[in-house]
Amino acid sequence: MKNTYILAIESSCDDTSASVLCNDKVLSNEVANQEVHKQYGGVVPELASRAHLQNIVPVVAQALKKAGITKEELSAIAFTRGPGLMGSLLVGTSFAKSLAMGLNIPLIEVNHMQAHILAHFIEESQPKPEFPFLAMTISGGHTQIVKVNSFFDMEVLGETLDDAVGEAFDKTAKILGLPYPGGPLIDKYAQEGNPKAFTFSKPNIPGLNFSFSGLKTGILYFVQKNTEENPNFITEHLADICASVQHTIVEILMSKLKKAVKETGIKQVAIGGGVSANSGIRNALTALGQQYSWQTFVPKFQYCTDNAAMIGIVGYHKFLEGNFVAQEVTAQARLSFN
Ligand code: KG4
Ligand code: ZN
């Protein structure tokens, strides 16, 4: 069969990314991170869209160059339609539409959260989940447990009622005076700390839903109180605070996963999204898998945080189905699965 070459574009938040896939294999996956947000302690939407505009042409050119193909060889263009920041999504969407029109090739819309899940199907000779499986998507914008029945049939079994787990990491980091995005830094310091040094109360949310806003407030009061007594409290106990917060978050996530497995009887469990780069979460999932005989799936680091390769793998499977969209398609900040 003839090879399919997909150019994929991701611009839903603060990473501009382009990737070229040959069938289900990644030939290139370029990501331009936007440093500009660091000084503001979070993503500033207007600055994000401006940076996407600056990045998109060179990032796409680099992805094609690394893949060693010309744009005339492309079979289709896939892009993130949503969910995400409207201004950011518009840049990738408009670019993808124009290029597809110029090249006269099909255009494929991709749901960002579906892509975090289907990233597991990028071919790198690794074991892949079989349908149906459970996927926990944990990112800066989302926290969901999803039952994945097939590539395009997904059911959300539970989700956060307030903050996403990535926000819990990033807001904790901000309270501790660490720069944005703080998740990776908490992970780093946690590795040198005692996870049982401090305890934080966990939310009591029914079913498979989550809540992280109470934890954030609890951490804020804890830090304020201790800093009043000892102004050097954070610096003296940074590793222990990070380890204890991470441990609490890991326990919240894992207890819901155990519940989801129990309720569905599905023992194949995958994680996806930026927060699945977290070492505590990766280790805990692997340990639970061994304890309860689950098959667990953890993506490579480069496919955890936002990247266009995951958009490309969804694009490839939609291409096989002939699932294309017309030029009338628009970006959608809120976009559900089905
Ligand atoms: O999926 P992603 O790149 O973007 C969104 O779609 O939101 O996720 C970004 C989130 C940020 O909140 C970041 O702090 C978090 O993922 N993150 C981590 C780690 N690496 C990235 N959180 C905890 N530990 C990490 N190692
Ligand atoms: Zn994401």
UniProtKB/TrEMBL annotation:
<keyword id="KW-0963">Cytoplasm</keyword>
<feature type="binding site">
    <location>
        <position position="278"/>
    </location>
    <ligand>
        <name>substrate</name>
    </ligand>
</feature>
<comment type="function">
    <text>Required for the formation of a threonylcarbamoyl group on adenosine at position 37 (t(6)A37) in tRNAs that read codons beginning with adenine. Is involved in the transfer of the threonylcarbamoyl moiety of threonylcarbamoyl-AMP (TC-AMP) to the N6 group of A37, together with TsaE and TsaB. TsaD likely plays a direct catalytic role in this reaction.</text>
</comment>
<feature type="binding site">
    <location>
        <begin position="137"/>
        <end position="141"/>
    </location>
    <ligand>
        <name>substrate</name>
    </ligand>
</feature>
<keyword id="KW-0819">tRNA processing</keyword>
<comment type="similarity">
    <text>Belongs to the KAE1 / TsaD family.</text>
</comment>
<dbReference type="InterPro" id="IPR000905">
    <property type="entry name" value="Gcp-like_dom"/>
</dbReference>
<keyword id="KW-0479">Metal-binding</keyword>
<dbReference type="GO" id="GO:0061711">
    <property type="term" value="F:tRNA N(6)-L-threonylcarbamoyladenine synthase activity"/>
</dbReference>
<dbReference type="InterPro" id="IPR017861">
    <property type="entry name" value="KAE1/TsaD"/>
</dbReference>
<keyword id="KW-0012">Acyltransferase</keyword>
<dbReference type="GO" id="GO:0005737">
    <property type="term" value="C:cytoplasm"/>
</dbReference>
<dbReference type="Pfam" id="PF00814">
    <property type="entry name" value="TsaD"/>
</dbReference>
<dbReference type="InterPro" id="IPR017860">
    <property type="entry name" value="Peptidase_M22_CS"/>
</dbReference>
<feature type="binding site">
    <location>
        <position position="187"/>
    </location>
    <ligand>
        <name>substrate</name>
    </ligand>
</feature>
<dbReference type="InterPro" id="IPR022450">
    <property type="entry name" value="TsaD"/>
</dbReference>
<feature type="binding site">
    <location>
        <position position="183"/>
    </location>
    <ligand>
        <name>substrate</name>
    </ligand>
</feature>
<feature type="binding site">
    <location>
        <position position="306"/>
    </location>
    <ligand>
        <name>Fe cation</name>
    </ligand>
</feature>
<feature type="binding site">
    <location>
        <position position="116"/>
    </location>
    <ligand>
        <name>Fe cation</name>
    </ligand>
</feature>
<dbReference type="InterPro" id="IPR043129">
    <property type="entry name" value="ATPase_NBD"/>
</dbReference>
<protein>
    <recommendedName>
        <fullName>tRNA N6-adenosine threonylcarbamoyltransferase</fullName>
        <ecNumber>2.3.1.234</ecNumber>
    </recommendedName>
</protein>
<feature type="domain" description="Gcp-like">
    <location>
        <begin position="25"/>
        <end position="312"/>
    </location>
</feature>
<dbReference type="GO" id="GO:0002949">
    <property type="term" value="P:tRNA threonylcarbamoyladenosine modification"/>
</dbReference>
<feature type="binding site">
    <location>
        <position position="112"/>
    </location>
    <ligand>
        <name>Fe cation</name>
    </ligand>
</feature>
<feature type="binding site">
    <location>
        <position position="170"/>
    </location>
    <ligand>
        <name>substrate</name>
    </ligand>
</feature>
<keyword id="KW-0408">Iron</keyword>
<keyword id="KW-0808">Transferase</keyword>
<dbReference type="GO" id="GO:0005506">
    <property type="term" value="F:iron ion binding"/>
</dbReference>
